[in-house]
Amino acid sequence: MNDQLPIISPNLDAPDEGAVQLFRESILAKLVYQVGARRERANAHDWFVATALAARDRVVDRWRRSNDDTWAEDRKAVCYLSMEFLIGRLMSDALGNLGLIETARQALEGLGVDFDTVVGQEADAALGNGGLGRLAACFMESMASVDVPAYGYGIRYEHGLFRQVIAGGIQHEVPEDWLALGNPWEFERSGLVYEVGFGGHVRPEVLPDGSTRMVWHAGEVVNALAYDTPVVGWRGHRINTLRLWSARATDPLHLNDFNRGDHIGAQAARMRAEAISRVLYPGDESEAGQELRLRQEYFFASASLQDIIRRHLSRHADLTDLARQVAVQLNDTHPAIGVAELMRLLMDVHGMEWDAAWTITQATFSYTNHTLMPEALETWAVPMMERLLPRHMQIIYLINAAHLDRARAGGADDMLLSNVSLIDERHGRRVRMGHLAFVGSHRINGVSALHSQLMRDTVFAELNGVCGDRITNKTNGITFRRWLHRANPELTKLLAEAIGPSVLDDPNRLERLVPLADDASFRNLFAGQRRSAKERLATLVSSRIGLKIDPDALFDVQIKRIHEYKRQLLNIIQTVALYNAMRARPTESWVPRVKIFAGKAAPSYHQAKLIIRLANDVAATINDDPVLHGLLKVAFIPNYNVSLAETIIPAADLSEQISTAGLEASGTGNMKLALNGALTIGTLDGANVEIDERVGRDNIFIFGLTAEEVAQRKRAGYDAHAAAEASPELRGALDAIASGVFSPGEPDRYRGLVEGLLNDDRYLVTADFDAYHSRQRDAEALWAQPDSWWRAAVLNTAHVGWFSSDRTIREYAAEIWDVATR
Question: Alpha-carbon distance 157 to 420, whole Å?
């Protein structure tokens, strides 16, 4: 039925009136027959659901055809395993990639309904935290856009990451109830359920042919129920599947206990099982929290691999050619237990011998590493692994024995063997999940050129040497459909009019903007679209936190997960230094500036939460100071998510990417902000290095120690006290914070924070302060020269086409997955 509703190619022209009328009729039909609402009484959410369902109809037929074509052509598929998929709102993405945004807008306008209001009714899917999850979402969209058959596999978190509430400057976590009103984009697959076991015991059993097979008798079984969401590629050429697992108890109610009056105890097993898919990243300070996180990781890895094997066997006689038909990408260490699980399935369930199973496993898996910090590489206590996953622990021991035998045969001494072992014997016997993923994969990639080289040189140097140089680089990218076309339609329209609509399909054509950077009229148009975006953000800030900000001020933006290595603290200290200077010299000609912060701290990360409180306390003092005449404002916008980012990023003038060099794997926020014309102030860390190379040193504010210099300082022993005494601006800012200037009701609130920084500045905040403060003054000087600023802004947009996730996926496809792309 829906094939009669053709996709309108994405362009800047008005849609066909016939298509508009068909879409309008479809919305009305959905409103009546599926939402069950009358047109005259429908509320905004009713209209959203009806519109989403009408759009979904256009998706489903093409989704089916994509799957049918893959099946008919027996194409190799990519399976992307990730704990997070930060997909945000889906309706504008789907409509945009199908070329139906203007069609939907006019269809709703003809019904007296505002399109933007309807789009705003959709809840952000709370399926991720930060860059890791957003990268997975960008990759899924790009795989569909470049015609790679793919399944994304993860968990359908009922509440996902928490919703952040700021009260009294303090972060509070409350459940993010994103599914409360339903999700029109997902399809429950009630016939697609897999059993996932935990605990129990393992014993050998003799088969009829006399051979022995290990059999795991799980003590607990949880059902994994699939929910599918279509992922629409650009222009709708391919639609892939995001398959998320929801945990269900095999026996939802112990009826005998219930009838005896134990109404709560009768549901205990159900609550334990379904806790697996309740919350993203449950607190892991307790042993129970650690156990739940491990249960989550195994749950989705097992269900996903069972699903992959089922689908393969529906087309092929056996599993010997699995790696030729399927590429499984491990997004960080969270799904690393999948290495042992695939071995278990191949051997214990499908009867393979060890060597054949191991060959298939290594050829099937590849692993993306996202961190250089050893403490961030997951490890699990051996006793907990043996209790929860006894068969997997046996397999890990066997993998490790073979791995160490190969290393020993290659000349490894005892120290090297200890360092490359999958079991860390020095810290209470723990399984190193990064090592397991590395050994079990044929390719391991970093996510920026610097990160990948540092992997070779530091955290995985010995393992890479023993395993034969498996590390390669795949610099991250972002989908321009979401972060330019959808987030910034005014800039997109300007670009298409200035350099041609082909830029919508080929990001590399942004280079055609370079000559226009010297065109005053184009620079004015570029500045004009930024001004509009800043007005929208100012309205949002006013409505969210009651702060009035000036759209003509320099919008200085740091939006990311709150973590000490990302150095929001450095930004706050510099803000205080600027505040001190403005109060000391009130008649000086200061550049109006708005410092914008957003991001969440992990619930158990007390230092990060203290930094959030400091940011809010500094904001409260500065924003109320009449001496400043409004020239400096500070805004901490709560509950950072994809939708908020889509409003902030087009409005940003200065992009804060100031992590300690050598610790940020890549970053993708830096790419999104540069694409929209923000100038980066940052260290030579992660993808900043490659952004610097492409936009040119004159169009970026680079400062601070390099990764090599950071390592040297740490080896030599760094004295933060000396750095503070040598810098009057730094000393004055730290004294103000420590003495209670920003916490008058509790003067010692931040004394410990400052003393801790001076006694153990592990992220070298004080070492980089003067260089950072100086580059901030350079940014102000450039802002005071509009022609120079907007020239640099245009050149940033012009030179970042390479950071498209389409490019990244094509590299994965050619060099890791061995799949064809369009």
Answer: 34
> pLDDT digits over 158-205, tens only?
998 999 999 999 999 999 999 999 999 999 999 999 999 999 999 999
| CA atoms of 581 and 453, how far apart (whole Å) | 41
pLDDT of residue 263: 64
Residue pair 55/107 in contact (Cβ under 8 Å)? The answer is no
Vertex 609, ends 604 and 614: CA angle to 5°?
A: 165
pLDDT digits (tens, 9 = 90+) for 553-571: 999 999 999 999 999 999 9
Annotated catalytic residues are: 370, 560-561, 566, 668, 672
First to last CA, the chain: 28
Q: Which two tokens stand for residue 158?
A: 């009922």
**Secondary structure of residue 212 in the 3-state scheme:** strand
Residue 802 forms beta bridges with which residues?
none
The SS3 call for residue 201 is strand
Which pairs with CB-CB distance under 8 Å and at least 24 residues apart come from 60-64?
Answer: 60/2, 60/230, 61/2, 61/3, 62/7, 62/232, 62/236, 62/239, 63/230, 63/239, 63/241
State the CB neighbour count (10 A cutoff) for residue 651. 25
Longest dimension (CA), the chain: 93
> In angstroms, what CA-CA distances link 573 with 550, 617, 661, 742, 756?
22, 12, 18, 12, 14
Contact between residue 477 and residue 808 where contact means Cβ atoms under 8 Å apart: yes
Residue ranges in the chain modelled with pLDDT below 70: 1-13, 255, 257, 263, 266
Q: Give Rg (Cα) of the chain.
A: 27
Q: What's the whole-number average pLDDT of the chain?
A: 95
How many Å separate Cα 791 from the centre of its chain? 31
- Give the CA angle between residues 529, 488, 701 to the nearest 5°: 75
The Cα 814–Cα 818 span in angstroms is: 5
DSSP 653-722: SEEEE-PPTTT----SHHHHHHHTTPEEEE-S-TTHHHHHHHH-GGGSEE-S--HHHHHHHHHH---HHH
**What is the reported pLDDT for 357?**
98
CB neighbour burial string for 324-339, b if at least 16 within 10 angstroms, e if fewer: ebbbbbbbbbbbbbbb
**Pairing status of strand 471-473 against strand 444-446:** parallel
Please report the pLDDT score of residue 8 as a whole number. 32
Give, for 133, the enclosing helix (H) or strand (E): helix 131-145
pLDDT for res 388: 98
Of 116, 111, 192, 212, which Cα lies nearest the Cα of 151? 192
| 351 within 8 A of 402, measured Cβ to Cβ | no
Number of other CB atoms surrounding residue 312 within 10 Å: 16
**Measured between alpha carbons, how far is 433 from 806 in angstroms, rounded to an integer?**
29
Cβ-Cβ contacts under 8 Å for 195 (sequence gap 6 or more) = 221, 222, 223, 224, 250
Which residues on adjacent β-strands are paired with residue 556?
A: 595, 654
Helices 101-109, 44-73: axis angle to 10 degrees equals 150
Give the CA angle between residues 50, 51, 56 to the nearest 5°: 100
Q: Which domains does the chain have, with CATH numbers?
A: 1-72+99-122 (no CATH), 75-90+125-476+809-817 (3.40.50.2000), 541-787 (3.40.50.2000)
pLDDT value at residue 198:
98
- Contact by Cβ (8 Å): 760, 561: no
Amino acid at site 172: H
> CA 359 to CA 320: how far, in whole Å?
10
Determine the Cα–Cα distance for residues 221 and 570; give it in Å rounded to an integer: 48
The Cα–Cα gap between 181 and 190 comes to: 20
Choose among 282, 301, 300, 302: nearest CA to 292: 282
CA distance 35 to 19: 22
